[in-house]
Design goal:
Layout: E1 11-15, H1 19-30, E2 34-39, E3 52-55, H2 61-69, E4 73-76, H3 83-92, H4 99-106, H5 108-117, E5 125-128, H6 131-141, E6 145-149, E7 159-162, H7 170-176, E8 182-186, E9 192-200, E10 206-208, E11 212-217, E12 220-226, H8 233-249, E13 254-264, E14 270-278, H9 288-291, H10 296-305, E15 319-326, H11 333-337, E16 342-346, E17 357-365
Parallel strand pairs: 1-2, 1-4, 2-3
Antiparallel strand pairs: 5-8, 6-7, 6-8, 9-10, 9-11, 9-13, 11-12, 12-15, 13-14, 15-17, 16-17
Helix pairs in contact: 1-10, 2-3, 4-5, 6-7
EC number: 6.3.4.18
GO molecular function, one term: 5-(carboxyamino)imidazole ribonucleotide synthase activity
Subunit structure: Homodimer.
Length: about 375
Amino acid sequence: MSLPVLAPGSTIGIVGGGQLGRMIAIAAAQYGLKVHVYAPEANSPAFDVAGARTVAPYDDAEALAAFARSVDVVTYEFENIPRRTAEILSAARPLHPSAEALATTQDRLTEKSFVAGLGIATAPFRAVDDAAGLAAAIADLGLPAVLKTRRFGYDGKGQRMLRPGEPVDPAAVMASLGNQPCILEGFVPFESEVSVVAARTRAGAFSAYEPCGNEHRDHILARTLVPAPGMDPDSTAEALSVARRIADALDYVGVLAVEMFLVRDADGRAHVVVNEIAPRVHNSGHWTIEGAQTSQFAQHVRAICGWPLGATGRVGGATVEMLNLVGDTAGHWHDILAEPGCHLHLYGKSKARPGRKMGHVTRLLPPG
C-alpha cells in the first residue's frame, strides 16, 4: 500500500508501548500529529503521552483492525511482533517498516543470510536445529562462538557463549535455549562495537547519522559516544555505505540501526562487520535528541509520513555521550539534574529492576 504525504493533524499508530514508542509519540506531537498506541500492557510508558490507546494482545485480529481504521499510518517500536499482526495491519493501512522488512530482521538466520547475500561481511554462521546440528556447527566453526535463538532475543537474552576449553553438551545447551531453532555465530575479534542509525523514505531518499561507538555491560547498552572512537574516514564511509545498501535492499521506510563490529586487518586497516539490524529507532540513537540537528524519533516520523528528512549533523560539533540508566541508577535523577549540561530522560516505568532500562542521560561535551 502506497503512502500518501500526511498532513499535520493526521494520526500515527504505534504498535508497542515502551520507551521507544513514547519518544516517537513525543516527536510526533511536536509536528502537530496525533498518536494512537497499541500495546497489551495497561501500564505501558507510551500511553502517558498518547492521545488514544488500545490495550489488547498482539494477536487480537478484531482489535488490530479497529486500531488500523483509527489511524493514517502504522509503525512499530520493536520487532518481536507476530508476522500475522503485521499482515493484518498492512492490509488496512500503510505499515512502515514493511511486513517484509520485519520478517527479514525478525529471524537471525534470515537476516544474516540476507546481509551476506549483499556481499557484506558478517560473522561466519551456521543454522542449528538440534543437538546434532550444534555439534556439527561447532566442528565447522570452532570455538569461541555464540549460539543464539533465531527469534525473540535482545539485550543478551536467548543466547549462550561457548568458549574453548569448557565442556559443551550439545543436548544440554539446546535445552537451555528451549530447543528452539538457533544460529551459531563464529567469534569476531573486534576492536569495538559501533552502529549507524539511518533513515530512508518511500522515494528512496536516505540520510544517516555518523557512526557511534557503543559500550555494553551485561549485554545491555551502557554508553554511546559520538564520534565513534577508532574510526577513520575510510571505515566511516564503509559503515555508512553498508547501512545504505541494507536499507535500499529492504526497500526500507523509517529509521533503522545497523550494529557492527569494528575490526582491524593485519596491516592495521579498520573495517566493519555487520552484527545485526534493528528495524526501528534504536537505543544507540538516543543521543540525537539533544546532540543532532534532527532526532532519530523526528526523523522516523518524517520518513513514515512522506516528509523530507532532516539534517543529521551534530549540534555545534560537540562530542556527545549517552548513558543508559538501568535498574536503580535512575534513582539518582536529582543528582543528574544538578549537573550542568546534562539532559535527563525518564521513561515513566513504575518499577525498577535489574537490567531494566529506566531512562537515559545525554551530555554534550566540548569538541576534541
